């Protein structure tokens, strides 16, 4: 299930968030005249970069957030289009030469089955490249779940705490290999984001992980949740400025056998 997204809040750390995308793009080869898809394309600006850099004839960006897609519409044209669709239910009309997903698959469960499904959308010789956050052990994430377990939030969400489906990096290498991918490249990368203060970490996480709790709690209770989250997180990180927010991410790529 997707949360509600706020494009302005998400784009507040635009440069920091786009670096992993360009690192991921470096793991792919252009597919001149080919078909490309971006799963969980968000605001579409990076999908435009993908479309141009891959030299595809057709690129499709899909996302389940109408707010993100409204922003993406401005980047459409010249073979690039966007569609409202849930990755979990998506069934493509034909195979793709490149399937890319940046910072979106962590919203879907059961990555073993998910990758097996996505692999079937790729033409022989086609490529898969994805990036997922691997920062579940950072206080910015652990505190979010600890606060969700506190009252009154726990009762309001019937005990819901977001599960983290991201697998260890080596498991992605095994999975891609088992699914018949060649040239498998998987790495864990630490991005070091210099934020103005520890308080900015709250703003960062509000734009992504916390959207899930925001949607479930409703505006009033979410306000209280956010205050409690800020209080506990700053107690843990200290009230420092600047603050180096270390963020681990997994980048994975491979080429489907068959050419
Ligand atoms: C962190 S943003 C990343 C957006 C973009 N890929 C980027 O790199 O800027 C995650 C995006 O995944 C989308 N998303 C989450 N779950 C999804 C799902 N099940 N199907 C389609 N999109 C989904 C969200 O709506 C959001 O736009």
From TrEMBL:
The keyword Methyltransferase applies. GO terms for biological process: methylation. InterPro entries: SAM-dependent_MTases_sf (IPR029063), Trans_acon_MeTrfase_C (IPR023149). GO terms for molecular function: methyltransferase activity. Keywords: Methyltransferase, Transferase. It holds the Pfam family Methyltransf_23. This is Methyltransferase domain-containing protein. It comes from Tepidiforma flava.
């Amino acid at each position: 299930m997707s949360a509600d997204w706020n494009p302005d809040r998400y784009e507040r750390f635009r440069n920091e968030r786009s670096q992993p995308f360009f690192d991921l793009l470096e793991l792919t080869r252009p597919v001149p005249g080919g078909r490309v898809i971006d799963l969980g394309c968000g605001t579409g600006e990076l999908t435009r970069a993908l479309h141009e850099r891959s030299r595809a004839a057709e690129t499709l960006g899909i996302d389940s957030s109408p707010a993100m897609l409204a922003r993406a519409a401005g980047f459409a044209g010249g073979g690039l289009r966007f569609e409202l669709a849930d990755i979990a239910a998506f069934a493509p009309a034909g195979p793709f030469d490149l399937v890319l997903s940046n910072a979106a698959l962590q919203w879907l469960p059961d990555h073993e089955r998910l990758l097996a499904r996505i692999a079937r959308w790729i033409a022989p010789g086609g490529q898969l490249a994805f990036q997922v956050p691997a920062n579940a052990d950072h206080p910015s994430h652990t505190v979010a779940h600890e606060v969700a377990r506190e009252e009154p939030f726990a009762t309001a969400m019937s005990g819901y705490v977001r599960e983290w489906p991201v697998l260890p990096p080596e498991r992605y290498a095994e999975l891609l290999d088992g699914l018949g991918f060649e040239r498998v490249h998987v790495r864990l990368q630490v991005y070091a984001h210099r934020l103005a203060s520890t308080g900015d970490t709250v703003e960062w996480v509000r734009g992504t992980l916390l959207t899930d709790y925001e949607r479930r709690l409703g505006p009033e209770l979410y306000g209280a949740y956010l205050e409690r989250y800020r209080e506990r997180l700053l107690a843990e990180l200290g009230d420092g400025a600047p603050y180096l927010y270390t963020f681990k991410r997994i980048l994975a790529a491979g080429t489907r056998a068959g050419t």
